[in-house]
Write a structure and sequence with these properties.
Length: 382
């Protein structure tokens, strides 16, 4: 049995909290894949009874979980409870030099938390023939006791959860995933705030070194582990024809990358409207590439009128992004070098001028090609 704690959800109004709690429970059930699972909800706490063998690694992937502990149930009858705490101590204290018992209680009982701490502490000391010491400040091991109305719980481990809010508490977003290191991390961070991605991949093959579709599918499958295995469709856009047209019409233009990103966003916006997604998310980070200056990001976002373009990584260092990618397991699936685009100009603009870009776009007049590209988007379910 596990005691699951959530942080941010707890400060919400009753109605909102009930919504988040229900979703969190649903996500826990989905991720544990145990048909005999039992889940009890109590104020500020969720108790999960499961036979699932990898419950601990699964709970570490459920957003909304701030921490959790494997717990043992115990009686609320005082002498029985003290006895059970001492038996629990006999299991977990060998090897420790000092301990403390910490008790929290809610409900009506004929004893206080302090009574339990004192009596259990004494009993444990007797059991261990005083080979152990009580240390309330900095003990080797702490035995936590939670007494609720009709049930008490004992535990000594606290595992960190991923934090955040339950996936599904926000709407879908269009996640521009390139197969590089950054974009899966951006998607992950938005999922951590409750969003659910639809992956959009622009396939430039043969103009980037190899198509990344296989990697994108693997990245999708990895992200699903953090979405309690909800569906995350992948949409692929045949993008090479449009890029060929642009680069042959204005060869060597320093605006190629910005134009490329603006057209990507327009296609993403159209897909978002069709799928009722509420935002576009990219893996851009300030200063990481020539096209990723604040000015350029503004000019790129300007191509989208109806929904926000969210860049969760704007202020992250590359190293920090890589650390998250390693932690979540997307790092080995990302191939930075493979994503190299042959159209990148030698000296890309770092200070795009919106008016000039708009003029170039008017002269390119891509509406037909854009329509055709959009009509040829393919969906890969899953
Ligand atoms: P990443 O590591 O995510 O590839 P990057 O540092 O290589 O990012 P860019 O290539 O400039 O940066 O791309 C910036 C963002 O634009 C990416 O994080 C991604 O969200 C989006 N993007 C770029 N290329 C593609 C693509 N082929 N398909 C989908 N999205 C893309
Ligand atoms: Mg890239």
């Amino acid at each position: 049995m596990y005691l699951v704690r959530y942080a941010e959800i707890g400060v919400k109004s009753d109605k909102a909290r009930s919504f988040f709690e229900k979703l969190l429970i649903e996500n826990i059930k989905r991720v544990l894949k145990d048909s005999n699972i039992k889940v009890y909800r109590e104020r500020g706490r969720i108790y999960v009874e499961t036979g699932s063998e990898d419950a601990e690694s699964a709970l570490k992937r459920v957003f909304g979980v701030s921490s959790f502990s494997p717990v043992k149930t115990a009686s609320t009858n005082k002498s029985q409870l003290v006895e059970e705490i001492a038996a629990y101590a006999a299991e977990i204290l060998p090897g420790a030099l000092s301990f403390a018992v910490r008790c929290r209680r809610t409900g009506l009982h004929e004893y206080t938390s302090r009574d339990i701490e004192r009596e259990a502490g004494e009993k444990i000391l007797n059991r261990f023939n005083n080979r152990l010491k009580v240390n309330l400040e900095n003990p080797d091991k702490i035995i936590f006791v939670e007494v609720r109305d009709k049930q008490a719980y004992l535990y000594h481990q606290i595992h960190h959860g991923p934090g955040g809010l339950p996936v599904g508490s926000q709407s879908r977003f269009i996640s521009l995933v390139s197969g590089g290191i950054d974009s899966p991390v951006a998607a992950y961070l938005m999922m951590k705030r409750g969003g659910l991605p639809v992956i959009l991949y622009f396939d430039n093959s043969p103009h980037s070194t190899g198509s990344m579709i296989e990697n994108i599918i693997k990245i999708r499958d990895k992200l699903r582990e953090y979405a309690s295995y909800r569906r995350i469709p992948v949409y692929t856009v045949p993008y090479s024809k449009l890029l060929e047209y642009v680069t042959s019409t204005i060869p060597g233009s320093k605006y190629i990358c910005i134009l490329c990103k603006r057209y990507m966003l327009r296609i993403a916006e159209k897909l978002a409207l069709k799928l009722k997604a509420d935002a576009i998310v990219t893996g851009e980070s300030i200063g990481q590439k020539a096209s990723q200056t604040m000015r350029n990001m503004g000019v790129i976002s300007n191509a989208v009128k109806t929904i926000p373009v969210i860049r969760p990584l704007v202020a992250f260092d590359k190293l920090e992004i890589e650390q998250i990618a390693k932690k979540i397991g997307s790092f080995p699936l990302s191939l930075e070098s493979n994503a190299c685009c042959i159209f990148t100009p030698k000296h890309p603009s770092i200070k795009a001028d919106l008016e000039r870009i708009e003029k170039v776009e008017n002269s390119l007049n891509l509406s037909n090609i854009l329509g055709e590209v959009f009509d040829n988007i393919k969906k890969i379910d899953g």
